[in-house]
Amino acid sequence: MSSAITSCEHLDPVQRGDDVLNCHDDGQGRKKAGQARSSSSGQPIYSILDVPPWYLCILMGIQHFLTALGGLVAVPLILAKDLCLQHDPLTQSYLISTIFFVSGICTLLQVFLGVRLPILQGGTFAFVAPSLAMLSLPAWKCPEWTLNASLVNTSSPEFTEEWQKRIRELQGAIMVASCVQIVVGFSGLIGFLMRFIGPLTIAPTISLVALPLFDSAGNNAGIHWGIAAMTIFLIVLFSQYLKNIAVPMPVYGGEKKCHTSKFYLFQVFPVLLALCLSWLLCFVLTVTNTLPSAPTAYGHLARTDTKGNVLSQAPWFRFPYPGQWGLPTISLAGVFGIIAGVIASMVESVGDYYACARLVGAPPPPRHAVNRGIGIEGLGCLLAGAWGSGNGTTSYSENVGALGITRVGSRMVMVAAGCLLLLMGLFGKIGAAFATIPTPVIGGMFLVMFGVITAVGISNLQYVDMNSSRNLFIFGFSIYCGLAIPSWVNKNPEKLQTGILQLDQVIQVLLTTGMFVGGFLGFLLDNTIPGSLEERGLLVWNQIQEESEETTMALEVYGLPCGIGTKCCTSSCTQYLPFWPKPEAGTGEQGPSLLACLFQEPSGERRKGAAETKL
């Protein structure tokens, strides 16, 4: 999430005149880490096919993990109340560990078999709104006794069944809906659909992912507005006011051995720093008994000892596995609601692919790579549902923004990040630590994060002629209805009764999901009200997709590992598969395999005969 803040840089590489802690080319094709270089160049320091030193891969992998940390932790914490888990932080820690583990698997799948760009996969907010809509149905509302901490016995079979049956329902809906994404991706339908889905559909859809969550964020922050306000202040201070301040950092290596280099600490880790400082303040206020100890007093949940037993109860090592909460169940209402989230997630991911390719020095992704990426994301959602994370996975726009800052676009860095996520998911104490974050600190983080997500959705309107009364009407009407209709349906569910229970549930879930209502109206009006392609913003989008040509460079970047499709498995039947790489037309050259691209001699130079990347 921290790069959700930095993604306000419009995904452009940060250019500075100072020396920064970074890596450079020594002029002989070898990359050296830990030495200062001028960051005035807009080209990536390590392009997608380069292999940085192993220690730099690990460090940059940790940074990507920390960048995505806010979003990864936020999803289980948002769902906790509607899963009847607000008073069971131990189970919340299990959900956090599970989403870490599944995100690691999905990241590795995407890097090696999907679109093959360095994009981290993680929990998606697009699934949160339909999940909350489904859990708000009368059949799934939490009993009153689960809302009272004094009445909850987290180890009792009755309580365990209450939350497990809800998450099993979520699992089934996510698994079935993810099959739709798999079909859309691997069949090539996503390319056809993108002809009709423009910025006026995407802007209200993405904006309404976060706008309806203001109530949840406000309630968490309202536990202690002072702590929440300080968290917000620190995030804004670090990410906006101090982002251009370079902090001297000790460095060992290079010609100078021990020396200092400047590092933009506040720009890279604004959320993490704010989170730690607010957490520390809560700890000090708890130790000094400044915060009230009475459970009913205002500000009690800001204490750090209210969830202190979680760390002692959590196991050091815990292996998440499919079906850990039981056999998933399926309802029609849940499936249709999550499908709305799947559509929003797919549209956002396609935009991420093109932005990421531009930042890492790669050509625009060809159609087969986009199709494969969406298909693998669907497979990732299927795995996330099977593992019981309570959510799906998608490409993280936040981490794409981080690529523009670090200018390290190597695929191997993202492999390191995926492996790190896997390890974090296996250590139970890690998830338990994040589950003990004081509630108002979480609320402050949510307020900033949801605001940025809303702004990211609105930023899609930069491609549209907003001087057009047509476009102003479509966007304004879609946003307003996306807020008004769900609010009315939530207050008057009995007025939508058809007499068929399953149909009633489907209608209620869809109409209480703001991003579905707003996105559907935007799609319908944008494709029926007359307007030119330029006015609708589709002209720019079509030009970007037309640039995705099958070149030797594209085959090298987006081809499958080990030369699959170019050196082996080149049957004539495969050319009809929408997700299969195709050799460059008119040449006999074949793209090199993954091994030839990635492996280097110990000296750091590429092996003779290996294709060089021209930037």
TrEMBL record:
Major location category of this protein: membrane
InterPro entries, A to Z: NCS2, Xan_ur_permease
Transmembrane segments: 53-80, 92-113, 173-202, 222-242, 263-287, 325-344, 413-435, 441-460, 472-489, 509-529
PROSITE patterns in the cross-refs: XANTH_URACIL_PERMASE
One Pfam family cited in the UniProt record for this chain: Xan_ur_permease
Topology in the lipid bilayer: Multi-pass membrane protein
GO cellular component, one term: plasma membrane
Statement: the UniProt record of this protein carries the keyword Cell wall biogenesis/degradation: no
Protein name, UniProt field: Solute carrier family 23 member 1 isoform X1
UniProtKB keywords: Membrane, Transmembrane, Transmembrane helix, Transport
Family (UniProt): Belongs to the nucleobase:cation symporter-2 (NCS2) (TC 2.A.40) family.
Annotated compartments: Membrane
UniProt feature coiled coil, ranges: none
Source lineage: Eukaryota, Metazoa, Chordata, Craniata, Vertebrata
UniProt-recorded Gene Ontology molecular function terms: transmembrane transporter activity
